[in-house]
Amino acid sequence: MNDSPTSNTHSSNTHSRAPIPGERTVRVTTGARLHFGLLDTAAPFGGVGVMVDQPATEIVVRPNAAFVADDSIIGRATKIVTRLCHHVGWDGLPACQINLVAAPPSHCGLGSGTQLSMAIAESICAFFDVDIAAETLAVEIAGRGKRSAIGVHGYYAGGLIDERADSPTDLNPLNHRIELPESWRVIVMRPKAEATTISGDTEIEQFSALKLATAEAKSNLIHILDHEILPAARAADFATFASSVQRYNYASGMFFASVQGGPYHGEDVARLIDETIGRGGHGVGQSSWGPGVFAWFESAGDLERFTDNLPADVDVIAKTKPKHQPRSIEIES
After folding, report:
1. Phi, psi of 230 (to 5 degrees)
2. C-alpha to C-alpha distance for 73 and 212, rounded to whole angstroms
3. Most buried one in 54, 162, 164, 176, CB count within 10 A?
């Protein structure tokens, strides 16, 4: 896949059947995205987050006599591949089999929709030798990056991602990418109590109901990001990084207080965050709309000690670490 801003493939008015790729298997594996919070409630939004190793998303594409996909992804895959067909001028869905091997729990704030859509789009392109520019693949084929570009940039590059723009764009540019220390660890949890999830049309409705962020509130977030989070990440200063991420997450969450009842999504998430801080968690916050909650630790040992006596009403989604590598693409002939 071409990660440059130009592409060798364009839409065509001349339609043809998709090529037959031969006996090959394509496997795309990517990580998950933690979102620390947006910089604004209106486009171009902007924000900061980080890719983590687990929970992973893995897609495999194989030869088949017709287009098929696992039931859990058939709707999403059909839409993505239909957009690809229109882009390259194929008449009809291409013959292949798309399998979902691994995926995070959906609607937990882990950016699973973006990672899954990107993996489907890129695996199909690799399977049929279609070369499409990275931004085109993300925006036009996968249909991602509308409100947050962290997951797209993280898919291609890994690392801590700061994305923002001065005016609305199809995909906000990557402002900074920083690799956090290999030794740092993060836990992702959620309350066992069933929570209302926010995605799709509900997410659009929630955003439309938000008040515009004040200049003072936006300035405060930018200050925390530029003068605390980013410098601490570059310097591997764990204490400052964790403290500033926690304050940034709270301040950004207050943008959404009118629709989620406070800086966090509901009483159970707020209680889990308070309890995690009380038990010695650092850099604690809600990822995106939640209910996923993250907490940072300076070492694997610190994380294991924290998890020794977790409350019974907490589900651990992942004990993981920052992911610095881009998604992996394996082609087996």
Report:
1. -65, -50
2. 35
3. 162
Closest to 288 in 3D by CA, of 31, 58, 77, 32: 32
What token pair was written down for 72? 């859990």
Q: Which of 246, 242, 250 is nearest to 298 (CA)?
A: 242
CA 157, 163, 166, 167 dihedral sign is positive
Which of 124, 78, 72, 65 lies closest to 100 in space, CA to CA?
72
Task: Specify the domain boundaries for CATH 3.30.70.890 within the chain.
Answer: 185-320
pLDDT band, very low/low/confident/very high, at 98 (cuts 50, 70, 90): very high
pLDDT of 99 higher than 60: yes
User: CA nearest 251: which of 39, 82, 92?
Assistant: 39
Asked if residues 147 and 46 have their Cβ atoms less than 8 Å apart, the reply is no
Asked whether 317 and 108 are in contact (CB, 8 A), the reply is: yes
| pLDDT tops 90 at residue 73 | yes
| Side chain identity, residue 256 | F
Helices (H) and strands (E) in the chain, counts: 11, 11
Phi then psi for residue 148, to 5 deg, are -140, 135
| pTM of the predicted structure, to 2 decimals | 0.91
User: pLDDT tens-digit profile of 52-66?
Assistant: 999 999 999 999 999
CATH class of 25-179: alpha beta
| Structure token digits, residue 4 | 């440059």
| Pairing of the two strands 96-102 and 67-69 | parallel
On whether the CB atoms of residues 179 and 160 are closer than 8 A, the answer is yes
Q: For the residues 2-29, what does the mean pLDDT come to?
A: 64
User: In the chain, where does the domain assigned CATH 3.30.230.10 lie?
Assistant: 25-179
Longest dimension (CA), the chain: 63
CATH number (1.10.1060.10, 3.90.1150.10, 2.40.128.20, 3.30.70.890) of 185-320 reads 3.30.70.890
CA torsion, points 45, 50, 54, 58, in degrees to nearest 10?
A: 60
Contact 221, 252 (CB under 8 A): yes
